[in-house]
Amino acid sequence: HSPTARAAPEEEPASAALDALRSVATLPAELRLALAREELSLVFQPIFRCEDGAVASMEALLRWNSPVRGPVPPDRFIPVAEESGLIVPIGAWVLRQACAAASAAGGSWRLSVNLSPVQFQQPDLASMVAGILRDTGLSAERLVLELTEQMSLSRYPSARETIRRLRAMGVALALDDFGAGFSNISSLRGFRFDLLKFDRSILALPPAQREPVLSALLAIAGAFGLEAVVEGVERPEDWALLRRLGAGYAQGFLLGRPEPGLGAALVRAPVPAPSDRAPLLS
Ligand code: C2E
Ligand code: MG
Ligand code: MG
Ligand code: MG
């Protein structure tokens, strides 16, 4: 090994780190422009009722197609939007677009929209939601707001009052990504939710743990009087297991992927014939 050959790799990481730092530093500014430049869009993923495979809900998911970076995944830019406060105007835009699309499409399925805990800091969140429902003509009973507990909700004093006002309007509340992050039993006691969404990491457990853990979680949902939605249904055996355990609702790439239109709302998930089901005793 020559000394020059050894010097090069030492400099590369430093400049790569600097590039990464610059790239992160400009994200908030790029995101600020993204909304005005119409680089943001929505896709919709169906949530199916396990009993009969009917579409119960369509979940709006945000997409950012940056002219410089290409598609940026929400797990990358939502935290940036939260730190910069941009999630407030972006979140309002998402809700308005999604409600307008669902209202125009009609149907009896519900619309699920993700809200950041940062939006729950806004004391006027419930009025904002009421205003958008009024403007778009979507009935409150068709709206489900999904809240993920990246941060503890109890940090936000106005969150409890906001949840109470939203539920009084007829809007349903879902606790998203339960089983991952900070979600716990005390958040189920402290805040009134209607639905509990289990993170896809549950279905990703090894077979020996998957069924007992899922059964226990479904029992927790039942104990709190909540409907259960299981995320991450990727394999036919996941779908069969959910139906066998009597889970309420299911979402995942096997059943329906996020797509730009609301066309998937017309599609029914394939319900396995009784003979396809795994035997109760083996
Ligand atoms: P989420 O709300 O839990 O949404 C489900 C995520 O899992 C979506 O990722 C969806 O594409 C993905 N997914 C669905 N089924 C499967 C599956 O079978 N397998 C796998 N591997 N993944 C599946 P996406 O769209 O990348 O969104 C990631 C997260 O970003 C969302 O998780 C949500 O927390 C957040 N997010 C997305 N849109 C918004 C938004 O408008 N506002 C806020 N505040 N957060 C959003
Ligand atoms: Mg969600
Ligand atoms: Mg989720
Ligand atoms: Mg998730």
From TrEMBL:
Domain EAL span(s) in chain numbering: 24-272
Superkingdom of origin organism: Bacteria
Name of the protein in its database record: Diguanylate cyclase (GGDEF) domain-containing protein
